[in-house]
Amino acid sequence: MSIKKNYLYNLLYQILVMILPLITVPYVSRVLLPQGVGTYAYTASIISYFSFIGLLGIDTYGNKLIAMTRDNKRKMSENFFSLYLLQLVLTLTSLIGYLILAIFFIQQDQSIALIQTISLLGTVIDCSWFFFGIEMFKKIVTRNIVIKLLSLLAIFIFVKNPTDLSIYTYIMCLSVFLSSLVMWFYLKGQIMFVRISFKQIISHLKPAIVYFIPGIALQIYFVLNKTMIGIVSTNSEVGIFDYADKIRMMALSVVTSLGTVMLPRMAHTFAIGQIEKAKDYLLKSLDFSTLLAIPLMFGVAGIAEEFIPWYMGNSFLKCIIVLTILAPTIVLMAWSGVFGTQYMLPLGKMKEYTTSVYAGAIVNFVVNLILIKPFGSIGASVGTIAAELAVTFVQLYLIRDIVPFKSIIPKTFDYLIAGFIMFIILRVVGRGMGPSILTTGVQILIGSIVYFSIVFVVEYLKRDGMIYHEVGKTLQKLRNR
Fold first, then answer.
1. What is the pLDDT of residue 461?
2. Could you tell me the CA-to-CA distances from 152 to 100, 118, 149 in Å, in that order?
3. Residues 6+ apart with CB under 8 A from 274
């Protein structure tokens, strides 16, 4: 399937991922309040560590390995079964470890923590990395859309007041489990049954760990924020940060969907030796990601003050500051997604990738340690942006001699100017109209028109100028003759 179709399928799902929280967050934030939202986010952050440890990098490594061997069905099948058997042993061990922790060491939110076990069972049976590897995005998107819609319906039917936190947790965890379960029905015809030796299973352990090691750092600055806030501050502060982060990730998903599509394609392109073609893919992807990420950054910051009050309610007003601080990470994560996910990982540059993410993890942990206790969610947001800056700058430095980034600097500057003008207009509209759903709608509409109009005009004038320049050179040559 073509990159365009895969991107459109993935974008369709990412749009759904954006729309559903737009519906559920206002409802859940008012029903469960920051305390309930924070309790769920805090326990989910703990379960994510065990899920991450259980997978041991198999999701990313498996994606790449399947992509590289998809032209040989037998070899691909051997890789699938040997990888999944390794995953099964590791995730079941992780499940036992989590149950011991939840039963004997978690006291305050134990019932919610035990319900979260269901999502860990989803990790045990997860095989989505196989379908990403063969670029079968249509089935993944279809599955996710159906389950997301069913979970949305269940939330509105069964979650009515703060005491329904356990029901909300059941719904969210069952959606994860069912998403993993359904994919097994799609395996028929894609693989063939082959005998697997213990040696084949163990052979994947070392390379999977190579992908797991940088993932530790990613886990630190994607999840540790919420865990540290829950330990050092309060569950309400976890809820504030979690919902601001959700808005940021909703916006970022428009950009990161391209990276999900490009990883297996880049891995396959590198594997067959088409290095120059892969670099061309990379530059185009970077330009496209920047084109989308910059207006999203300015847009999120520009609408936050009018958006949060009507969307989440007055209990979450602190989200305005947190979300505004987090907004620049949309661009930083878009760039690091291209450098890391689309270049370093497919090319096997694990040392460079690991260095970058550990730099971010260390920065994040240190800043969090200093700022979370006095500033709560605001301190965590500063830690997040510091971490993303560290990751992006390290990656830029490490691959500076390989990828000609200078070629996209002029366009990036144009996008920044257009985004800043859009931001000023958004603030004028917001201050004039005040907080309301209508204001947000008008801001998004006007902001989109302003940004893309400016970009189009600037690019058109540049192209027109280049045409006139070439015509002038041709006429001058004719005169010289």
1. 78
2. 32, 18, 5
3. none
Which two tokens mark 181?
Answer: 């379960």
Angle at 13 between CA 8 and CA 18, to 5 degrees: 120
CA distance 265 to 64: 9
Amino acid identity at 213? I
Is the model's pLDDT at 260 over the cut of 70?
Answer: no
Q: At what angle do helices 409-433 and 437-480 cross, to 10 degrees?
A: 150
Per the listing, tokens 């737009």 go with 22
pTM: 0.76
Which of 124-133, 229-238, 419-428 is modeled with the greatest confidence? 419-428
Whether pLDDT at 327 is above 90: yes
**Does residue 260 contact residue 10 with C-beta atoms inside 8 Å?**
yes
Nearest to 33 by CA among 316, 435, 319: 316
- pLDDT tens digit string along 185-196? 888 888 999 999
Distance CA 364, CA 219 (A): 11
Q: How many CA atoms lie within 13 A of 220 on its CB side?
A: 24
Q: What angle do CA 50, 223, 120 make, to 5 degrees?
A: 30
Distance CA 124, CA 259 (A): 25
Output phi, psi for 90, to 5 deg.
-65, -45
Mean pLDDT value of segment 358-372 = 92
User: Per DSSP, what are the bridge partners of residue 191?
Assistant: 188
Domain boundaries, the chain: 3-403, 412-481
**Alpha carbon of 98 to those of 101, 213, 216, 435, 437: distances in Å?**
5, 20, 17, 43, 42
Structural tokens at position 214: 């940088």
Number of Cβ within 10 Å of residue 163's Cβ equals 11
Determine phi and psi for 317, rounding to 5 degrees. -60, -30
The CA distance from 225 to 364, in Å, is 8
Q: Of all helices (H) and strands (E), which one includes residue 467?
A: helix 437-480
SS (H, E, C) 182-207: HHHHHCECCECCCCCCHHHHHHCHHH
Rounded CA-CA distance 378/383 in Å is: 9
The candidate with the shortest Cα–Cα distance to 294, out of 201, 180, 412, 152, is 412
Residue (of 353, 53, 350) closest to 210 by Cα position = 350
Length reported for the chain = 481
Q: How far is the C-alpha of 92 from the C-alpha of 242, rounded, in Å? A: 28
Nearest-10 Cα torsion for 85, 89, 95, 97:
-160
Dmax (CA) for the chain in angstroms is 91
